[in-house]
Amino acid sequence: MNSTSDVKSAMLALLGLGLTGMVVGLGTGWAFQRGGLDFDVFHAAWKLVLSGQPSEIYRSSPDRFLYAPGFAWLLSPLGLLPRGAALAIWCLSKAAVLASSFAPFPASDVVKDPVIAAGLSAWA
Predict the structure, then answer these.
(1) Which residues have a Cβ under 8 Å from the Cβ of 115 and sit 6 or more positions away?
(2) Which terminus of the chain is more exposed, N or C, with fewer CB under 10 A?
(3) Cα separation of 85 and 40, whole Å?
(4) pTM as predicted
(5) Where in the sequence is the domain holding 79, given as residue range(s)?
């Protein structure tokens, strides 16, 4: 590649990372502003598991809990936290999972810079 295409690739990669970060930031802000209603279902299930009422996760919830009970058990420690703190950790965890999805696209012979490789894969 020549330097012009390197600059274009870098700009495209940074734009991809920036847009992905913007979507994550907007989604997190939306969850806090609008209440994260789906999250309330999870948080209620975690609290039920911690209170010794795991059989209630499908009956006593703000909405239907549609997942295997193991998920409520696995994530139940988040139920120990206040809703806002648990929601913050939940949102950060989702962002971390998204960011880790860029790891399978390391720098290669075509794109040598790992930041550019991650940025280009952010478009996916």
Answers:
(1) 13, 17
(2) C
(3) 13
(4) 0.75
(5) 3-122
**C-alpha span between 83 and 20 (Å, rounded):** 26
**Which of 3, 7, 5, 89 lies closest to 43, judged by CA?**
89
Instruction: Extract the tokens encoding 84.
Output: 């806002």
Q: How far is C-alpha 122 from the geometric centre of its chain's CA atoms?
A: 14
d(Cα 1, Cα 10) in Å, to the nearest integer?
12
> Cα(27)–Cα(94) distance, rounded to whole angstroms?
10
Q: Which residues, in sequence order, are CB contacts of 43 under 8 Å at separation 6+? A: 78, 79, 83, 86, 87
**What is the identity of the amino acid at 47?**
K
pLDDT tens, 9-51?
A: 788 888 988 999 999 999 899 888 887 778 999 999 999 999 9
What is the tally of structural domains in the chain? 1
Rounded CA separation 71/29 (Å)? 25
